[in-house]
Amino acid sequence: MSRKKVRAYALLIFFALCLGPAFSFKLLAEVETQPAAGGPGPWEAPAPASPATTPKSLQKERDFIKAQVYFEEAAFRFSRADSYGAWENIAKSVTLAPESPRALELFIQVLASMDDPSILREIEAQRKKSQQLLDLTARHAIKEARALIRQGRLSQAAYLLERTLDTISYHPERTSCSFLIKEAEKEFVQAHLNEGRAQEILHSRITGLLEAARDYLEKGEVLKARLLVGLALILEPRDASALSLYRTVSQRPPVGATVYPKAVQPKRMPSPAVSSPQPVRAARPAQEAVPYWWRKEPAEPVFIDYLDWQLRIHQRLQEVISIDFTDTPLIDIIDFIRDAADVNMVVDEPGVGNRLLIPITIRLTDVRIESCLRWVLSLNGLDYTYRDEALFISDKEFIKEAGQVQIVIYDISDLAGSLRDFVAPGMGWGGGFGQ
Predict the structure, then answer these.
(1) Does 292-412 carry CATH code 3.55.50.30?
(2) What is the pLDDT of residues 107-155, one digit of tens each?
(3) Element spanning 365, H or E
(4) Nearest to residue 73, comparing CAs of 93, 89, 88?
(5) Per-residue pLDDT tens over the stretch 234-275
(6) N or C: fewer beta carbons within 10 Å in the chain?
(7) Is residue 49 helix, strand or coil?
(8) Helices marked H in 114-176 — which ranges?
(9) Is the dihedral of CA 337, 343, 349, 352 positive or negative?
(10) So where are the chain's domains?
């Protein structure tokens, strides 16, 4: 680092400590527009909503400014491949301002660049801490913005929410960030209601979400694109651009099979659906002709295979698991249950719609996977059924209309024995009558 840069940082800290928080925030805004060369980007910790006046809040602001200086120095050293020098500075930055997600990300990058296998556990712990602090910071910022809106301080609320959106929008794929973005978007629009710019702001936010979704789609990150388009539809369900892009995104197969492909989804038409089949006591021989009532479609014998895959899925759904989710989108919970049961699941996206993005809070201990799945789906008006060697998830009314067929096979071989022929006794009549 050059002496001029060190002198500039020293003057910045001096003015911040001497002239008070109002002037320090002005200087901080100027520094944010000049990131370090090769560094990860601007400092993105949410700023306090209003100037502090108490000694405790003043000390917090001083620590924030010091943490930024350490962050810039760490970013500079990390860009010069000085991992240990970056480690010393970023550790001080995270200690002074642990609520900064960008500082925690750089902290993880620095740890990963150091050739020491003993710190792998610390890297994983910092990843979890980064996600928790990101959620906590965003929730606190939304709460502060709501208070500012009630006080009529709309410009400060809009500024705080805009910075919060810029921070959490970098991670739309995380567990609860999609829900936080939705809440922040609503509050951001609410902050401009009294200014008569609500529709304009709403349109600009939807446009920004759709542009980001298109960028992710070009990069092949289909899941992130779907989340952002879904958020745009939550803000304005009738937006034509969002609906058009949603159809385009739904037709693109995801990379790595992290969501359910569109191509494998069946047509929305009534077909035999089986729920919770019972154990089979006797099966028909394979060489026998299959009666018409066991045929899914005309001239398609599926009796033997049809029962085998149903029972296999049903047995896997009887395993016991425990779940604990807080404000988690439905699609993430379905993905977790699918991996736990190791069965095929197909989601009827046209029938489910935006309910895949609705956050759910649920905690179940030692329950069957079948019961767990029914609980999660019932909270959003959904249900599942057995179809074509997979669990088909759709709207509860559609599943009900398709019909729930219960297959139970009973052994009646003892009632189907061959009958013997008996000769009738004589009647004892005369005149040619009788036997």
Answers:
(1) yes
(2) 777 766 665 555 555 555 665 666 666 666 667 777 776 777 666 666 6
(3) strand 359-368
(4) 89
(5) 667 777 888 888 888 777 765 544 443 434 444 444 444 444
(6) C
(7) coil
(8) 120-150, 154-168
(9) negative
(10) 3-217, 292-412
